Amino acid sequence: MGDETETSGSFGDLDELYQEVILDHYRSPRNKKTLEAPDITVDGLNPYCGDEVSIQASLVDDRVVDIGISGLGCSISQASLSMMSELLKNKSLSDFQRLVSLFKRFLEGTDLSDCETSELGGLEALSGLHKYPIRIKCALLGWTTMEEGILDYRSDNAAK
Ligand code: ZN
């Protein structure tokens, strides 16, 4: 695939199928719950759009065994958070770091290999966002928030 240089239109031009996926996650977020004793608890805010996310994760040996999310805001931010929560389950924290950098490259419009794209699962629905830089902050909010949570978790554990 080469560079697609679509110049026309607004956000409403996102592929219909993709819009369906995003709206589905927005309306029925996956893993929306509160965990009883999470190892990671972290909140994030995107001031550009007013999006808010809260993430909790329970870990066993650096692997995410359970995740709970909640949030408020635009459909992109909440759908991306929900999709991230699905991807994160049973992943190690270093798997997550790899996925974050993959997702960032994807959002920037970098062509990924088929294998890399399939790792992102439903997030493919967010392709085309690179044309809307302000929306990239929405899509990344859950991810950068989780990154912060992991950093805190690691520095807390290193201090003990
Ligand atoms: Zn937003």
Number of alpha- plus pi-helical segments: 5
Poorly predicted ranges: 1-10
The percentage of residues in β strands lies in 15-25%
Overall geometric form: globular
Q: Give Rg in angstroms.
A: 16 Å
Q: From the helix content, strand content and strand pairing, which structural class follows? A: alpha+beta
**Count of DSSP E strands?**
3
Question: Which small-molecule ligands are present, each listed once?
Answer: zinc ion
Helix-strand string: HEEEHHHH
In round numbers, the mean pLDDT is 89
Helix proportion of residues, in percent?
A: 40-55%
For the termini, the CA-CA separation is: 49 Å
For the largest beta-sheet, the strand count, sense and barrel status come to: 3 strands, antiparallel
Trace the largest sheet across and list its strands.
1-2-3
Polypeptide structure, described:
Strands 1-2-3 form a three-stranded antiparallel β-sheet, covered by helices on one side. The chain is about 45% helix and about 15% strand. A hairpin with a 2-residue loop joins strand 2 and strand 3. By secondary structure, it is of the alpha+beta class. It has five helices and three strands; from the N terminus they run H-E-E-E-H-H-H-H. The site of zinc ion has 8 residues, from helix 2.
Give the helices and strands, then pairings:
Layout: H1 16-27, E1 40-46, E2 51-60, E3 63-72, H2 75-88, H3 93-107, H4 114-119, H5 133-159
Antiparallel strand pairs: 1-2, 2-3
The structure holds zinc ion.
